[in-house]
């Protein structure tokens, strides 16, 4: 794994890289990784010319790889899924915490929806749900269960998407909405939410709303989050009503 | 979205790109995407010099983006998660379909494990599970339920990982193992599997094995897969014992 940091001219870099690959081959190395920060974009072309391919990129760097031996390439896969959460938060008056969004898909549509958001790389699903609710509505919550999830495939960019419906228990009740993304945030009676027109016209929204409604009556087993080994950042989600470790 | 295909020299490309960005700005365009196949690696540097950043990369292309207006960048997130499956397949003699792997983490360890594999971009979790079992063992199966899933965060490359434990029903019983990856494949009594030393020493393996054992006795509600809208590639997973659409 070569983590390039200092600027270098490509006519100096290319012969150095060639000599290194030859040395790594003699040493019996298999997979070689080169991380090029975006400031070193001039080194992308010479790296590709030495037989490297792209592995993945983030905003500020490109990772290239080269599998040296003749055996099949055993390099790990690139990330394929964007992960999102929707938060079902109900108070003890059977009111649900809902928002209207300013931008994106729901812009201009008069739809009350769960607070939603993207799970960051390295972030736990249960943590992301609590964070998004706090950011969008100012409400403090505790993660309880995952009630359902949906997998979709995006035409655009070819990536896939996993969306987890999380039930959270509210720990505070006074809403302070985020102004940049959220047009309105309110506690709304659950039946009003379930029966809104949009849900009746969109099956997967209808199913999710009705699953939450079933859960609100106490008769639905979702997946709770357990850390099997204390200390390790590693959550296992399973039906905690039916299986007690 | 500019999908570059034909080779071009960078001194011709750079002024063309600059003129285009200026035109797009006048037209009120917001996000601009440029897809550069790896053969056009010479155009990465001039694209970055025009203010583009990396969005993501696959083996054979790099996607760059530029958000033109002064408003906050509303470009979609890059994929952050690798998704994998493990397949729990039991016949009616209470024997589980297990494999020993030749390479990777379990190489040299004497561990019987579920057939596992990576869910491809654009592939449904339930389809991936059936495909992996077929590839590794030759057994035909039908997807039943997701019993649990685990989220972990990888040090290496910074990506996160979602691993879904899928219960499948076998439709055939004669094993034909794949030679390149699989050292052994066999039907093994479930209790022998649950009690193997490795599981007792690794809590998340132990939990998963015991959840499967609980399920084998019929008293565990996992998540089944339903397509809310016929036609659309879009699965919703939820507790089908507790909620009937």
Write a structural description.
The structure is a homodimer of 245-residue chains. By secondary structure, chain A is of the alpha+beta class. Helix content of chain A is 24%, strand content 33%. The first copy, chain A, has a 4-stranded mixed β-sheet with strand order 1-2-4-3. Chain A has a 4-stranded mixed β-sheet with strand order 7-5-9-8, sandwiched between helices. A two-stranded antiparallel sheet of chain A has the order 6-10. In chain A, strand 11 and strand 12 form a beta hairpin. Chain A is elongated, with a radius of gyration of 24 Å. The model of chain A has no long low-confidence stretch (mean pLDDT 93). Chains A, B: Residues 80-210 form the Nudix hydrolase domain. Chains A, B: This is NUDIX HYDROLASE RELATED. Chains A, B: InterPro entries: NUDIX_hydrolase-like_dom_sf (IPR015797), Nudix_hydrolase6-like (IPR003293), NUDIX_hydrolase_CS (IPR020084), NUDIX_hydrolase_dom (IPR000086), Pre-Nudix (IPR040618). Chains A, B: It comes from Salix purpurea (Purple osier willow).
